[in-house]
Design a protein that fits this description.
There is one protein chain. The chain is an alpha+beta fold. 31% of the residues lie in helices and 15% in strands. The chain has five helices and five strands; from the N terminus they run E-E-H-E-E-E-H-H-H-H. Helix 2 crosses helix 5. Bound molecules: FE2/S2 (inorganic) cluster (2 copies). One FE2/S2 (inorganic) cluster binds next to loops.
């Protein structure tokens, strides 16, 4: 029987423990052990960004991170972005601006965009495109995505968001 390893971490502001195999990726642990299925497996090898989560505030491809590397770390996933039943401005702007279609890539885009806006509330178009360069979408254009992030940045600067409110849900 394969030995399972205990991992203790923080996910979307809440303590989380899980067991995993040494070879398991963080993406697999999130989806299969913790039932957080918002992060998607597109390519499984670091090319598409569909599996993006934040690890210690930095966006990472969770298909390239081992689950055991989450020990003691702070992880944020798409499930933790909304607050008190309110969509984050970047989610709202994707909806309003029709910046998404099939949704496989969308969670990764949203997490990567939020990571940028957390650090830089007034990114240039070039900075947005640079940040999102690791996220691929094959069914919509990139311009609407960039415009949605620009509009979300504008709303955030106008004070449209309370980051300290409770995460809306842990399940998607
Ligand atoms: S599934 Fe991780 S980068 Fe594509
Ligand atoms: S909407 Fe992104 S791959 Fe389809």
């Amino acid at each position: 029987m394969t030995k399972r390893i205990h991992v203790s971490t923080t996910i979307n502001g809440e303590h989380a423990d899980f067991l995993c195999e040494a070879r398991q990726t963080l993406l697999e642990a999130l989806r299969d052990e913790l039932h957080l299925t918002g992060a998607k497996e597109g390519c499984g090898n670091g090319n598409c960004g569909a599996c993006t989560v934040m690890l210690e505030g930095v966006p990472v491809n969770s298909c390239l991170v081992l689950a055991v590397e989450a020990e003691g770390a702070r992880i944020e996933t798409i499930e933790g972005i909304a607050r008190d039943s309110r969509l984050h401005p970047v989610q709202q702007c994707f909806l309003e601006g029709a910046a998404l279609q099939c949704g496989v890539c969308t969670p990764g885009y949203l997490v990567a965009a939020k990571a940028l806006l957390d650090k830089n509330p007034n990114p240039s178009e070039q900075e947005i495109r640079f940040q999102l360069a690791g996220n691929l979408c094959r069914c919509t254009g990139y311009d609407k995505i960039v415009q949605a992030v620009q509009e979300a940045a504008r709303r955030l600067r106008a004070g449209a968001w309370d980051e300290s409110a409770s995460p809306a849900t842990q399940e998607v």
